Amino acid sequence: MTSPPRGRFISVEGIDGAGKSTHLAWLTDYFLNKGISLIQSREPGGTGLGEKLRALLLNDAMSLETEALLMFASRAEHLAQVIEPALSRGDWVLCDRFSDATYAYQCGGRGLDKTKFTALEQWVQLRDRGLIEPDLTLIFDVPLEVSQARMATSRVLDRFESEQQDFHARVRAAYLERAEQNPQRIRVINANRSVVEIQSELAEIFADYE
Ligand SMILES: Nc1ncnc2c1ncn2[C@@H]1O[C@H](COP(=O)(O)OP(=O)(O)OP(=O)(O)O)[C@@H](O)[C@H]1O
Ligand SMILES: Cc1cn([C@H]2C[C@H](O)[C@@H](COP(=O)(O)O)O2)c(=O)[nH]c1=O
User: Fold this and answer.
1) Which ligand 2 atom sits closest to the C-alpha of 44?
2) ipTM above 0.95, yes or no
3) How much distance in Å is there from the Cα of 43 to the middle of ligand 2?
4) 200 in a known ligand binding site
5) CA of 127 relative to ligand 1 center, distance in Å
6) pLDDT (tens digit, 9 = 90+) per residue, 177-196?
7) Residue stretches of the chain with pLDDT short of 70
8) How far away, in angstroms, is 42 Cα from ligand 2 center?
9) Model confidence pLDDT, tens digit, residues 59-72
10) What is residue 65's predicted lDDT score, i.e. its pLDDT?
C-alpha cells in the first residue's frame, strides 16, 4: 500500500502582541474551508507534557539554559506525539511558534549562544532526510510600540510578555535576521496594517495551496 503524501508544516511567529493568534484563527478557518485536513497546535505545548512545561516556562523563574532545554523538551515531545504522525498521515500542521521562536527569544532576547541552539536543534529535529522544519514560516512583524499597545488592552502579561522593551527589540531583530538567513522558508508579513489587509495578503499567499 502506498503512503499518503506528506502534509504541509506551517508555523506562525512574531513578537508578543503582533497579532499572531488573530491570524492563526483566520488561517485555520481558511484552510478548513478549502477542505484541507489540518491540526492546529502550539509551542511550547501541544501535548499533555508540553502543556505542563508551558505553564512552567511562562510563569516560573529559571536559568537561560533550563529555559532553552525545556523549550526543546516540549518540542521533542510535540514532534514525536503530534507533528510527525500528522504529517505522515497527510494532515497539515499549523503551529503557533516552532524553533525560530527559540532562536528569537532565547538567542536574540536572552543571549543564548547560537552554537547551543544549533546543537539542540540538531539533536531534536535531525532525521535521516535532514532537519524537520516548517515548509513555510510566517513572521508577523510590528514595531514595538504597536505590539505593546495591543498587549496592554488584551491580557495579563506572562514572564516573556512582561520583559523590558530592549528584550522585545532584540527578539524582533533576531526574527528579522532569521528571515534574512532563510528567505526560501520564511516570509515576513507587515502586521502593522488592518486585519482585513493582512488577511488579504494571507489569502494571496495560500491561494495555490491545496
Ligand atoms: N492588525 C491589527 N490591528 C489592530 N489590532 C489588532 C491587529 N491584530 C491583532 N490585534 C489586536 O491586538 C491584540 C493582540 O492580538 P493577538 O492576541 O492576536 O496577538 P499575539 O499577542 O501576537 O498573539 P499571542 O497571544 O499568540 O501571543 C488583540 O486585542 C487583537 O484583537
Ligand atoms: C516556542 C517558544 C516560545 N517562547 C515564548 C514566546 C512567547 O512569549 C511564549 C509563548 O506564548 P504565546 O502566547 O503562545 O506566543 O513563549 C520562547 O521564548 N521560546 C520558544 O522556543
Assistant:
1) 1
2) yes
3) 7
4) no
5) 35
6) 999 999 999 999 999 999 99
7) 1
8) 9
9) 999 999 999 999 99
10) 98
| Residue 111 identity | G
Predicted pLDDT of residue 209: 87
- In the prediction, which pLDDT does 154 show? 76
Residue whose CB lies within 8 A of the most ligand 1 atoms, among 11, 16, 22, 194, for a mutation test: 22
Assess contact for 23 and 141: CB atoms under 8 A. no
- Look at strands 126-127 and 130-131 and give their pairing: antiparallel
Q: How far apart are the first and last CA of the chain?
A: 23
Within 6 Å (CB) of ligand 2, which residues are found?
16, 42-44, 71, 96-97, 101-102, 105-106, 160-161
pTM greater than 0.95 (yes/no): yes
Record the cell numbers describing residue 61, joined without a space. 523563574
Beta bridge partners, 204, equal: none
**pLDDT for residue 152:** 87
Q: Do residues 189 and 139 touch, judged by C-beta distance below 8 A? A: yes
> CB 172: neighbour CB atoms within 10 A?
22
At residue 135, the 3 state secondary structure works out as: coil
Rounded distance between C-alpha atoms, residue 103 and residue 147, angstroms: 19
